[in-house]
């Protein structure tokens, strides 16, 4: 299953929301507009190294499989379809959407814009960002090679762009692209985005391009 080694780090408290249970008499759930229905993957019980985690340390799942999509939306005179298909494994933003229990399984109804990217492997470094999202590998030293202070290490804000999305939609419904490219070293807003740990222990962050403040060279 995808996401097996995907580990989320969060500096904020976990908000627990009870899922809405859909009665068994309903056999179909069709999202409307630009919403998608995602079957949530099971919570991780072990670290990448195989260490069993206590329930309090288990991460809130941030990945799942798209099982249904809405009809899309209209921007100007253009009809824009949902950019992900059923069966696609995706990663989504923390605290996004509404949880529902459907057919005995936990699902999430969320807007397409809350999907961070597509992940078809076990490692977050292979994430394909969507919309205006950017995947960055966090650096532990500054561009000049200076070691960061311990306080700064807790929330680094410099990294290397690994992948970028196709960009946001403009008023005509066309993708505008992003002013960033893989390989760029960037400075980004300290408290933006979602933090992940890769299979090799490297730290990654996904955030919106607007949270990137500068390109370093």
Description of the molecule:
- This protein has 1 helix and 17 strands.
- With 217 residues, the chain is mainly β.
- The strands form 3 sheets. The chain has an 8-stranded mixed β-sheet with strand order 2-8-9-3-4-7-10-11, with no helix packed on it. The protein has a 7-stranded antiparallel β-sheet with strand order 1-15-16-12-13-14-17, with no helix packed on it. Strands 5-6 form a two-stranded antiparallel ribbon.
Topology (SSEs and partners):
Layout: E1 7-9, E2 20-21, E3 35-40, E4 63-69, E5 73-75, E6 78-80, E7 89-92, E8 98-102, E9 105-111, E10 115-118, E11 128-129, E12 133-138, H1 150-153, E13 158-164, E14 185-188, E15 194-197, E16 203-208, E17 212-216
Classify the secondary structure makeup into a structural class. mainly beta
Mean pLDDT across all amino acids: 81
Work out the helicity level. under 10%
Q: Describe the global form.
A: globular
The main pleated sheet reads as: 8 strands, mixed
Features:
globular; disordered N terminus; 7-stranded antiparallel beta sheet; 17 strands; mainly beta; 8-stranded mixed beta sheet; single chain; 2% helix; 217 residues
Q: How would you summarize what this structure contains?
A:
The protein is mainly beta and 217 residues long. It is built from one helix and 17 strands. It starts with 6 loop residues before the first strand and ends with a strand.
């Amino acid at each position: 299953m995808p996401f097996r080694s995907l580990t989320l780090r969060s500096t904020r408290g976990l908000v627990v929301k009870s899922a809405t249970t859909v009665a068994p008499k309903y056999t179909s759930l069709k999202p409307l507009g630009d919403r998608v229905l995602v079957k949530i993957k099971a919570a991780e019980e072990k670290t990448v190294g195989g260490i069993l985690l206590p329930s309090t340390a288990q991460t809130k799942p941030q990945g799942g499989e798209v099982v249904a999509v809405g009809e899309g939306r209209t921007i100007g005179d253009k009809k824009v379809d949902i950019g992900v298909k059923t069966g696609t494994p995706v990663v989504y933003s923390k605290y996004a959407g509404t949880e529902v229990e459907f057919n005995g399984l936990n699902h999430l109804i969320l807007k397409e814009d809350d999907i961070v990217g597509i992940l078809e492997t076990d490692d977050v470094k292979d994430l394909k960002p969507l919309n205006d999202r950017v995947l960055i590998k966090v650096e532990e030293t500054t561009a000049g090679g200076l070691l960061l202070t311990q306080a700064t290490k807790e929330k680094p804000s410099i990294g290397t762009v690994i992948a970028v999305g196709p960009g946001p939609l403009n008023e005509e419904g066309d993708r505008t692209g992003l002013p960033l490219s893989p390989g760029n070293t960037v400075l980004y807003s300290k408290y933006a985005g979602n933090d992940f740990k890769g299979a090799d222990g490297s730290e990654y962050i996904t955030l919106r391009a607007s949270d990137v403040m500068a390109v370093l060279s």
